[in-house]
Amino acid sequence: MMKLTSATRMDDATRAALASGRAEPQFGLFMDTLLAMRGISETEGVVLAGVSLEAEIMSDMSPNALDMVFAAIDRGASKPKAQLVYNDLGETPSFLQDAILDAEQRGGWGFGGPGIKRLPLGFPGDAKIEIIRIEAGTKIPWHTHKGQELTLCLAGEFSDGNGVYRPGDFSVYDGSVRHQPVASTAGPAYALAVTDAGLKFEGLLGALQKLFNA
C-alpha cells in the first residue's frame, strides 16, 4: 500500500472523485504517475481497475474499432520519439513523458522565477497541472494556497520544512499550510504539481500578486 505522509490532506470531494473516476484528468494523471512510481500490488491493481470499470458508461463501439486501434499503434511506432529537454525526467513513467513531450512541443518551459522553470501540461479544466524544475539550492518563495496543491517529486530532491521529498514522495496541502520548497544542493529537483485555485505568495511577490489581480 502507499505510505501517506503527514502532509497529506486531500479533501473528501477529491478523494471521492478519484475513487469514482470522475476527477478532472489532471488529478488522474497525478495519481497514475504516483502509483507507477511507487508500484502497486496485484490486489491493489485489481481493485483500482474494478472501480474504474464500474464508473464507465457503456456505449456501442464502431465495427472497425479494433482496426483503428492497431492503425494508431502502428503510426505511433513508426514515428521517432522526440528527446526530452531535461534527461533527468527520463526515468518517469512513459505516459508522463509523452505528456511532457507534447507540452514541450506546444509551448515549452517558461520562467517561473530565479532558478525556477515551469512546464504547463495544458490539460482542460479548472485545475492546473505542470512540471516544476527547481535549480540546485533554489528556494521557491514562501506561500500558502487558495485551494489544494498536490505535489509529487519526479527527480532530484527537495524539502519544505515539513519533510524531505525524493522520487515517488508526495504531499497534499491546503490553505492552512505555509511552506517554502527548497531544492537540494546536489542537483535540480523536478515536481509534478496540481493546483485547483492557485498560490498566495508573501512579501513583495504577494503585494505584486494582489496588485495585478485587483
What does this molecule look like?
The structure is a single chain. With 214 residues, the chain is an alpha+beta fold. The protein has one domain: Jelly Rolls, CATH 2.60.120. 35% of the residues lie in helices and 21% in strands. The chain has helices at residues 12-20, 25-38, 42-55, 65-78, 94-106, 203-213, and strands at 110-113, 116-120, 128-134, 143-145, 149-155, 158-159, 164-165, 170-173, 182-183, 189-195, 199-201. The strands form three sheets. Strands 1-2-3-10-5-8 form a six-stranded antiparallel beta sheet, with helices on one face. The chain has a three-stranded antiparallel beta sheet with strand order 7-6-9, with no helix packed on it. Strands 4-11 form a two-stranded antiparallel ribbon. β6 (158-159) and β7 form a beta hairpin. The longest helix has 14 residues, at 25-38.
Strand content: 15-25%
Mean pLDDT: 73
- Choose one word for the global shape: globular
CATH topology: Jelly Rolls
Series of H and E elements? HHHHHEEEEEEEEEEEH
